[in-house]
Design goal:
This protein is α+β, with helices and mostly antiparallel strands. The protein is built from 13 helices and 12 strands. The longest helix is centred in the middle third of the chain and has 57 residues. It is rod-shaped.
């Protein structure tokens, strides 16, 4: 049998079939009943609850109002039900007592002596008493069977209610007095509430009968149902009113908060002239005025700080430029003195050498200060060109080798066997690598200094690793600060200015890359430079790990990296001769 949702003459398999309405409905039904859909729906509700103050206030107000209305309505309904029931029962008992007295009076005045006369008497009494009541009621007259039964055993104005008279009630009436019982009376295909009241009455010459009056409580039930419906409508109306009031109140409350958050966001983006609109004199207006005052104060503070920063940058730049002229003069004099220092006494010759060395350091510091001032002023530019990073790094390593030999350290360099072309400023990249290598040699304390380089499809990374004194976590956080030193008491034997790593970090950011550091006391330090291969892109990851193998946290353990540095030889204290892992992979 064909699918009714597929039209006659449907396309063949090589044509995209049409999605019919029935198929969409079945697909939506399947999606709706899937656990993933339920989880997404629950997550959306939770997210809406957590992120929307208006939804929380509306929900809590509506739920609280409905609970209060429900409790009040339930209390009113119960009290009304009990009041109607008790009042109706009292009325029924009084009326039944009077009716029983009239029935007994009728029996006393009767002259019925035959069975037919007694039966007629009972029928007349039942019919009369049923019609005499202002409320709808039926009359049932019963008598227990014995050997001297003269009249009928059952007489009722409506035989359908005879079953409502229970045996327990008949036994209580036979014991004497008036008794009553709540019952369910038949009414078509359903039932309705009712009350049966019974009392004994004697027919002279015949015997004792039990007279039962059956009252329907359906009118009272109708009034109670009408009250409950009214309370339900009132509860819905009150809930809607509470929701509307809560919406209006939350809108008036949340709207200024939202406006304040938007203004604060704009203010944080640098729009310092953003202010909130003030309406009225209430608490929200006070909040707006306070926020505006705070924003104005912060704007003034930021303006003063920017002016001070500008003055400081200008001062550094001006002083650096002004010092160049006297420094050139001193440099010329120092060169003259240095040329003639071979004829000086040893003390004077040593003083001349120290003067030349400190002049070199002074010149380096002036150059670094000028570079820092250009970064602060935003005037530093990137002269990017497509260059081979391997060549740049190799040239730097060759210039560092003499320093490493003097310090007693051995350089271990792993470079890719193929060119790594990237959009870089060779001068700045060379300066970064040089600073990292010089710092590593300075702190290696005669141990091995290793340089690793790797590249992937997005970035190129250079990692410099030493096994010297190392750094703790607090020192790693400040290692790129200007003029910061991990150990101020430690002597600088290579004449650093304290600005090398700060300038290197700025150079890396100028390329769109990053410079990161890791260290552990007694285990050395590791610095990683990551640069994008294409200018204008930001690498999401680095080809090399920052933390050396064996030092990763246990929860982040991963397979051994082939490019990681192998352990030191325990006999020589140096690295074993190992091939380039990149070459090994190829």
């Amino acid at each position: 049998m064909s699918d009714p949702d597929v039209p006659v003459g449907a396309p063949s398999d090589d044509v995209v079939p049409r999605v019919t309405l029935g198929a969409r409905v079945r697909r939506w039904a399947c999606v709706r009943h899937s656990p993933a859909f339920a989880r997404r729906w629950a997550a959306s509700v939770v997210r809406l609850w957590r992120t929307s103050l208006r939804v929380r206030v509306l929900t809590m107000t509506l739920v609280g109002g409905l609970l209060a209305v429900s409790a009040l309505g339930g209390f009113v309904a119960v009290r009304t039900r009990d009041g109607l029931y008790e009042a109706r029962v009292d009325q029924v008992l009084a009326e039944s007592a009077r009716s029983t007295a009239r029935v007994q009076s009728t029996f006393d005045s009767s002259t019925a002596t035959t069975a037919a006369e007694v039966q007629q008497l009972l029928y007349d009494v039942a019919t009369e008493q049923s019609a005499a009541s202002t409320q709808q009621r039926q009359v049932v007259i019963l008598r227990d069977a014995d050997d001297n039964v003269l009249g009928p055993l059952v007489v009722a104005s409506d035989v359908s209610v005879v079953a409502a008279v229970g045996d327990q009630l008949r036994e209580a009436v036979a014991a004497g007095g008036q008794h009553w019982q709540s019952v369910a009376l038949p009414s078509g295909d359903s039932t309705e509430p009712g009350v049966v009241v019974g009392q004994a009455a004697t027919v002279p010459g015949v015997g004792e009968y039990q007279v039962f009056f059956v009252y329907s409580l359906q009118p009272e039930q109708d009034r109670l149902d009408f009250l409950l419906r009214t309370l339900g409508v009132a509860a819905v109306a009150l809930g809607a009113l509470l929701a509307a009031m809560a919406y209006v109140v939350t809108r008036q409350t949340v709207r200024p908060v939202v406006a304040a958050s938007q203004v604060a966001a704009r203010f944080a983006e640098g729009h310092l002239d953003e202010r909130m609109v003030v309406h009225g004199e209430d608490e929200m207006a006070t909040l707006a005025r306070t926020f505006n005052a705070m924003a104005a104060n912060m704007s003034e503070q930021i303006a003063r700080m920017e002016e001070l920063s500008t003055l400081q940058r200008r001062f550094v730049s001006d002083v650096s430029h002004e010092l160049r002229t006297p420094l050139t003069t001193v440099r010329m004099a120092a060169e003259v003195i240095g040329d003639a220092s071979h004829s000086f006494e040893p003390t004077l010759r040593r003083s001349a050498e120290l003067m030349v060395d400190q002049l070199d350091r002074f010149e380096d510091m002036l150059a670094d200060l000028l570079e820092i001032s250009r970064f602060d002023a935003g005037a530093a530019t990137l002269d990017a060109q497509n260059a081979d990073v391997v060549v740049v790094v190799r040239d730097v390593v060759e210039t560092i080798e003499p320093l490493a030999e003097r310090k007693g350290s051995r350089l271990v360099v792993w470079l890719p066997g193929e060119p790594v072309l990237a959009d870089i400023d060779p001068r700045r990249v060379a300066r970064i690598v040089r600073n990292l290598m010089v710092n590593a040699v300075e702190h290696a304390e005669g141990t091995v200094v290793q340089l690793d380089m790797a590249a992937d499809a997005q970035a190129v990374a250079v990692r410099v690793r030493d096994r010297g004194v190392g750094m703790d976590a607090d020192q790693v956080e400040h290692v790129f600060d200007r003029f910061w030193r991990a150990d101020p008491a430690r002597a600088r034997t290579t004449g650093g200015t304290g600005l090398g790593l700060a300038i290197s970090a700025e150079d890396a950011r100028l390329h769109g890359g990053r410079l990161e550091a890791w260290g552990r006391p007694g285990h050395g330090a590791s610095f990683r430079l990551t640069l994008p291969l294409r200018a204008g892109t930001v690498p999401k990851s680095s080809p090399l790990p920052l933390v050396p193998a064996g030092h990763e946290p246990v929860r982040r353990a991963r397979p051994h990296d082939a490019a990681a540095m192998p352990p030191l030889d325990p006999e020589t204290g140096s690295l074993p001769v190992v091939p380039d892992p990149a070459e090994a992979d190829r």
